[in-house]
């Protein structure tokens, strides 16, 4: 007889019945799932797929090949997905028969991940418009969500597969075949056009016939055309798992823009490219372990990481260029447009580089660059360049910039703020250790050590436009140099001294005590602050203005000699023209009437007439103070502050 504390008495009969019922129910559900008639899901599948693709979907039949299995082979017959209205008429996808091994629980929850796929009679018409809407991605208004699940296929068979691809964004229009079997593996062969040029596309992959889903899967692909030849060879972590892959890419073509049509990285038009890169792709991130090659006559070596974090793209790159030509960053059409603009408005010195970053989107990052040798058509005082480019929410900064010159260097920073409709450009650059004879290019005329400052803030979509309305300061100073003695007499308006020096030692030099060419900039107009050149025999000071919008010069230089000249040049020096084609004349005002003297001959005549008392004075003229009056040290410090 059972006592009150036996286990049997502590577990009532009703509880036992309840537990047994639950176990039976669970077993029944499991058995029902294992034998679930998937044909009942045909209507549900059609409705869900129709909503997903925004087009009618019909399924001839949906069945399973085994009566009892948790991972049955599901068979679809006569599947048809029509093209969405925006993509045109006809069908997006037609399949005569397709089967896949799926978990029945995944099928019932709508989260199916096939482990094997067998397709017969595939016909697919892929379409993407210029805005990036694609029929394979579903409805254009559908929010994209990056998938985190990698394919886990262990078998792929495709028989009698055909496809067409009309990709307006990639400028690719091709048609061909796609097959997959145990003998030849995955094979894609197509022909058509790329960016208007005849093109062929081929791709190959190792047979997928029961290998481990995590094993490395070799693949190769090639797009060949007259404007771009792009090849990729590598492996993925499992068949078709392009979210985890390592590959080598080579690209030869007429421009980086052609490559960008394929990879869509925001690249621009350039000269011919010949590049090779070793690349890894993990999830949403890209790792460029090594990139080298040429763009035009520029040679580059680089590495970079491109990470996707919190909806933003973050770039960390290092670029080393043994030699670089900035003209290589424009294609032939861009260079032709620049030449046409130059012919229309005249040659300019300030670069017309675009600085509008409003379309950069959610991209941040840093690029460390070093150019060992700058190539500039026609020659340049600049020899090398290095610095750090940082981009943060459409604010671009060039920091720690160092540009080596033939002698000396330029250092400083540049900032472009594109957070508002009109970008703001600001910069502060300093020149140290440079030589006048190098910058001016006339060592027989003037020599000396140069220091400089460029501090400008302006608004515009290009550097030229920002300088054209910019405000700030531009100053260059020189000391401990020398100047051609005859030119120094002209600077001091000592015509007699200049003529005597020309008749004697024309190459003689005189000490340059200081040269301060400083300007205050306001709304693109530069005014002397001050303009002063002092030598051992003369001094000249300037007034007038320089217009950065057009790069026009309108300065007048008046001078004084250390000794009273026997024959004084009565007219001042006038500096005119443009930055690229300056002119120096000796003339008071434009000549009026017949017989009026012009240029240097007229000025000499007026000067002789004035010396002989034959010419009436036009009134008191501004003259520069004597050379000894210049406090060069103080003026230099003020100019460079």
TrEMBL record:
<dbReference type="Pfam" id="PF05359">
    <property type="entry name" value="DUF748"/>
</dbReference>
<keyword id="KW-0472">Membrane</keyword>
<keyword id="KW-0812">Transmembrane</keyword>
<dbReference type="GO" id="GO:0090313">
    <property type="term" value="P:regulation of protein targeting to membrane"/>
</dbReference>
<dbReference type="Pfam" id="PF05170">
    <property type="entry name" value="AsmA"/>
</dbReference>
<feature type="transmembrane region" description="Helical">
    <location>
        <begin position="17"/>
        <end position="40"/>
    </location>
</feature>
<feature type="domain" description="AsmA">
    <location>
        <begin position="291"/>
        <end position="529"/>
    </location>
</feature>
<dbReference type="InterPro" id="IPR008023">
    <property type="entry name" value="DUF748"/>
</dbReference>
<dbReference type="GO" id="GO:0005886">
    <property type="term" value="C:plasma membrane"/>
</dbReference>
<dbReference type="InterPro" id="IPR052894">
    <property type="entry name" value="AsmA-related"/>
</dbReference>
<keyword id="KW-1133">Transmembrane helix</keyword>
<protein>
    <recommendedName>
        <fullName>AsmA domain-containing protein</fullName>
    </recommendedName>
</protein>
<dbReference type="InterPro" id="IPR007844">
    <property type="entry name" value="AsmA"/>
</dbReference>
<feature type="region of interest" description="Disordered">
    <location>
        <begin position="615"/>
        <end position="641"/>
    </location>
</feature>
